[in-house]
Amino acid sequence: MTVDWVCKHHNDLGKEQLYAILRLRSEVFVVEQKCVYQDIDGQDLEGDTYHLMAWTDDHLVAYLRLLDPESQGGDVIIGRVIVAPSARGTGLGHQMMDEALKQAEKQWPEVPIYLSAQAHLQGYYAGYGFVVAGEEYLEDDIPHIGMRKT
């Protein structure tokens, strides 16, 4: 699978890119995971938010967003991490984490990075240097754990 990685500040997103992002997030988080929640949370177009996208043949196959530390209390926040169902099991998630860490370091050098991981993925994120930061909690009936990389 040939993938083109694109990381854009929200001011540089095209409407087609934003539409593809929101469509994929809705497809997985709302429909597949059956989590009825307000995905469009006001942060996609705020501050210095960056959107990391993986494209294959004009299809968005993976995505995450990076929220800037100034608006988030000092940490870069990785969120909305998603791999399209059609691209799972291809190693794309690992490529995306590598890209995300590179982009975070490029935009905000030496700033700690925080993410809210589904609890069963704790070991996965630990492989990238993240350590548990806080107690496990439920979000949309799915166990989550805060993790930080310094």
From TrEMBL:
InterPro entries: Acyl_CoA_acyltransferase, GNAT_dom. The keyword DNA-binding does not apply. CDD domains: NAT_SF. Transmembrane segments: none annotated. Pfam families: Acetyltransf_10. It comes from the Bacteria. GO terms for molecular function: acyltransferase activity, transferring groups other than amino-acyl groups. Keywords: Acyltransferase, Transferase. Belongs to the UPF0039 (ElaA) family. This is Protein ElaA. The lineage of its organism: Bacteria, Pseudomonadati, Pseudomonadota, Gammaproteobacteria, Pseudomonadales.
